[in-house]
Design brief:
With 341 residues, the chain is an alpha/beta fold. It has 11 helices and 8 strands. An 8-stranded mixed β-sheet has the order 1-2-4-3-5-6-7-8, sandwiched between helices.
Amino acid sequence: MKRRIATLLAGLALLATAAMASATTPGSGYFDHSDHDDVLAGGVKMIPITTPKGTFHVWTKRIGNNPKLKVLLLHGGPGATHEYFEAFDSYFPGAGIEYYYYDQLGSAYSDQPKDNSLWTIDRYVDEVEQVRQALHLDKDNFCLLGHSWGGVLAIEYALKYQQHLKCLVISNMVDSIPAYNDYAHKVLMPAMDQKQLAEVQKLEAEHRTDDPRYMATLGPMHYEQHVLRMPESQWPEPVTRSFGHINQQIYTLMQGPSELGASGRLLNWDRSKDLHRITVPTLVIGAQHDTMDPKYMAGMAKKLPHGQFLLCPKGSHMAMYDDQQVYFDGLIGFLRGVEAK
């Protein structure tokens, strides 16, 4: 009798394990490409984008298949690339999440027109909407994830087009550039070596940010403390590859020469009084050592009618690398919760 009970319990344990595995790993449906028109190119699609300056093409790549959950990734910069998101390959497929890499216009894999009139928030928002339409994403499945500058773009897109969204993720971005700069001046800069900071600011004032001393000084005292918390020589290859491909013209024009505050076209951007208008489920991700105030980002989640906040206590601006497990556990938990609704 005891042997039968033990056998029965063992069988139930195996069934439970199998059920858990099927709930957390993608089945054959995740690899079903029958309803997609990008199979020949392995998920890659060049999408035509209409702009006031003509038609250009942007690069996208789909990974996986999930009719209920499709995540479009908006990279930072402006002018960086999708490449630093490649850490998502270690987590999203196992969770059965369909996701799209995307290089915004002007970034490495996409067309790179030189007309500076193209680099405005409104024009980028219109581009994202054209990408959404081309990828056939809609309110029943479409989740938009924006990191850093991509968070600005995600907020702006949601304020204009949230009728097309299932959910939103704002990763490592505040809703106000003045608040971002205020934190840099009142919290980050006073904690730095003041002699080194003065050298950096002098080079900025003289428009000599291409001087090798600029990044040689700014790297250890800022980037390795607040952008990605490990020695730059140990930064993951997708990060160094992406940063190496940044379109410096767009980045400097929009953001300014460094992550130590913003000084470009984004200088006065502020949506702090509009965030309550975003009513779709929204996850705000912040990090304790970010270039932006984690307490401010926690406050953003409270402004949102259906907001949640995830803090990465060991992370910085690139928390998907330096606090990876917390970042992805929280993100995937949020996405699964939305998917189930």
